[in-house]
Design a protein that fits this description.
This is Transposase. The protein has about 60 residues and is an all-alpha fold. It is about 85% helix and about 0% strand.
């Protein structure tokens, strides 16, 4: 599921609202270890564009 979530996030990264929505949905389908991997990947890939969204979503869903 992690690779699927990554694919979706890349595809919706043109729209910040869709990106945040899909990122939040990821927490429903991933296990704790996958969420940690997703967090690192997201910060590596999208911190330039969506740092505020990443901080907001990952701080709310502390694992």
């Amino acid at each position: 599921m992690l690779e699927y979530v990554k694919t979706i996030l890349v595809k919706v990264s043109f729209d910040k609202m869709l990106f945040e929505k899909e990122l939040r949905k990821a927490f429903k389908v991933l296990v704790k270890e996958e969420i940690e991997q997703l967090k690192q990947w997201c910060y590596d890939q999208f911190s330039g564009m969506y740092l505020i969204i990443l901080n907001r979503v990952f701080l709310k869903h502390q694992v």
